[in-house]
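Following up on my earlier thread - several people asked me to post the actual chain instead of describing it. Fair enough. Here it is, all 102 residues.
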Amino acid sequence: PARTPSGHMGEGEADAFTGRDIRFTTGGGALYAIFLEWPEGEGRIEALGAQAMPDARIERVTMPDGRLLDFQRTDDALAVALPRPERGAFVPAIRIEGAGLV
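Reply from S.P.:
Thanks for posting it. Predicted structure:
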């Protein structure tokens, strides 16, 4: 939800990123979600809720190192239980596997 200005050299006017700001990419048959800041509590991805993507089926959510993550998909969002950040940790990225995602 952070607003970023359009045009060149506008970074100074951009809102600060939060744990609700997420970018996506695909690879190897999976969808990756990269949080731009560690979320407080669980990670919520509204773009992957059942209302937003009714034909998608989420089967597995892991960290890039393969650790399984608990998740729950509701009408409003995909909620993911992320591990607590370690000191100096990068922002979290998760691998999401299932039908209709890529």
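DSSP finds no helices and seven strands in the chain. That should answer part of your original question.
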